[in-house]
């Protein structure tokens, strides 16, 4: 099994939940940097169809419809990437879900949906990928957490708990894998212009923008650039960190 990290040739990258929103921006960023990108989501979008048919991406874009909260589908997705390209160089755990509502009125069903995807599915899929990275002794893992896991946000208790837990997962896994040349970091975005932030009303979004030193919500590109920095082959001494990318909101 050979790896592309350190060779200057295209890397094999997995981005979970790349069909829209932030994940789609991350997929595009790695396609633009000439890498091979595999992504999954439960449903196929127009963006996925365009990547699949774009001749510039022939042989270096792979999509599978998969619900990664279903362990069998998650395992099959990772195996499909390994069957196609062998060594996995980069994993971006992006797929996530938010359910809002104050805790006293929150349902067990919503709790389970958020914990099952944001935490349990991420841990399961990462385990599959780590086994592959350990075999070729290199890799870069980036977990997309959130500033909500650091600061809290009224109505997002369970979501915030999963994101804080993901940062803990990052730190512990970085300790486990450091000696094997695998780095593990979190990126904690502020509020982005994606479907997920549609849960916030106009007044909440205005308040966030007013309190953000950079004076705007984030774009997927803002986050994708930070990820590219963390997975740069030269950044092998940068691990176990949570990089906050939020326009200064929490500074
Ligand atoms: N938006 C923000 O302001 C913000 C801020 C901080 C952090 N984040 C984090 O950034 C990440 C992306 O957020 P986003 O705003 O881009 O969300 P989004 O627009 O809702 O997109 C989520 C993506 O994940 C996929 N997905 C959802 N459930 C899945 C499942 N069970 N299996 C496989 N794929 C699944 C979705 O496709 P399907 O629905 O078709 O499966 C979609 O591609 C999340 O981890 C989120 O917590 C977002």
Automatic annotation (TrEMBL):
The record's Gene Ontology biological-process terms are: fatty acid elongation
Q: What EC numbers are recorded for this enzyme?
A: 1.1.1.47
GO function term, MF aspect, one: glucose 1-dehydrogenase [NAD(P)+] activity
**Keywords assigned:** Oxidoreductase
Domain of life, per the record?
Bacteria
Quick check: keyword Oxidoreductase in the entry? yes
What sequence ranges are listed for the domain Ketoreductase? 11-190
Top-level EC class: oxidoreductase
What the entry lists under PROSITE patterns is as follows: ADH_SHORT
The record's comment on protein family reads: Belongs to the short-chain dehydrogenases/reductases (SDR) family.
Q: Indicate what this protein is called per its UniProt record.
A: Glucose 1-dehydrogenase
Q: Which organism is it from?
A: Nocardioides antri
Recite the lineage of the species.
Answer: Bacteria, Bacillati, Actinomycetota, Actinomycetes, Propionibacteriales
